Amino acid sequence: RRVTVAAHPEPSAAGTGGVAIRPEPSKHAPTPEPAAHDPHAGHADPEEPNGHHHFPPEIPKNADAPAAMADPSRTRDLPGLLAGLQQAVADADPNLMTAYQNSILTFMRSDEARALQVFESFKGEKSATVLEILASAIASNPAFAASPVIAEQFLSLAEKSDEHPERRQAALYYLSQTYEMPVPIQERVATLARLEGDPTLQSSAITALAHFAGADEARTGTVNDQLVAVARSASDPMIRSGALAGVRTRAADENVIASVGEFLRTDRDPEVRRAAAESLGEVPVQTRFVALSELEKAYRGEDAAEVKRAILMSVVRAGRAEAGATLERLLS
C-alpha cells in the first residue's frame, strides 16, 4: 500500500480545489440524456471567482420526480436542498449532484451562520459522497476556508474517535483546504496525524498538516518538524512514507534534510526509503550540498533497484551543476 500526500499545496486567498464527485453505486441508477443547460440552475459560470470549477449542470428531466428535485434552483430552503442532494447521490446522477452543490453554495453565499447550518447537517449524514460534497462546498468559499470558527467545528468532529469515520474523513478534507489558521489548530491537527489509529484517517490528517506549511517561514519549519515526528513515531510504512512526502524540503533547514536522509539510509521499508529519496530532490540551493551528501551515502549502502534509481534522479534534481561530479563518483 502507498499513501499519496498532496504535493505541498500552496495556500491561497482564493481557496483550493473542490472534491471529485464519486457517485455511490445504485442498481437503479438512470442513464440521463443530456439536456439543455438551465442558466438559472446554481452557478452558471463554469469557473467560479474563487478558482473552483463547477461545471454548468445539465439536469435530466424526470417526469416522475418532483419539480424541485429536477431543478435545484427552485429549492430555496436547506432541508430541501439536502434532500435533493441525497436523492441525486442515491440515483448516481453526477449532473444533478453538481447542480445541488452549486445551489448549496448559493444558499450559503458568504454568510458564516449559513455555512454552520450546512455543517450541522453532517451530524446525521453517513453517505461519503454527500459529506464530501458538503465539505467541498464550504471549503470552496474563501471566507469559510479562512474561518477559525468553522475550522474549530470540523476539527472537533475529526478528533472524535467514536464519530462516524466518513464524517471524520470529510472534516479532514475541509481542514486540508483551509489557510491562515491559528497555530493551536495546526498543533491539534499534528497531534491527530501522530496519534490517530485508523490509517486512512491518519493519512488524511497528514495531508491536512502538510497543507499548513508555506504560510510563512516559521510555520513551514514547524510543520516540517511535526511531519518528521509523525514519521518517527509511525510503525506503518505507509504512514512514514506519507509524512516524509509531506515534508517541504524546498524550504527546509539542514536539520530537516539530515532527518530525511536518516530515513533514506536506515528505514527497513524500500517504499519509505524511496519517499525520502524523492523528497531530497526538492531542496533549495542553500542546502543542496547537505542533500547531495545524504543521497551519496545512502546510494552506497542501498540494495533496492527502485530506491537507487530514485536517489540518482534526486541527485540530478538537487545537484544542478554539481550533479555531474556526484554521479561520476557513484557510477564509476
Describe this structure in words.
- With 332 residues, the chain is an all-alpha fold.
- 59% of the residues lie in helices and 0% in strands.
Search tags:
332 residues; single chain; mainly alpha; 0% strand; elongated
Order of helices and strands: HHHHHHHHHHHHHHHHH
- Provide the structure class: mainly alpha
Looking at the chains present, what oligomeric state does this protein adopt?
Answer: single chain
Shape category: elongated
Q: Can you summarize the main beta sheet?
A: none
**Which value, in Å, is the CA radius of gyration?**
23 Å
Tally of strands: 0
Strand content: under 5%
Compose a concise summary of this entry.
With 332 residues, the chain is an all-alpha fold.
List the helices and strands and how they pair.
Elements: H1 67-70, H2 78-90, H3 94-108, H4 112-120, H5 128-139, H6 142-145, H7 148-159, H8 165-175, H9 183-195, H10 199-211, H11 217-233, H12 237-246, H13 254-266, H14 270-280, H15 288-301, H16 305-319, H17 323-331
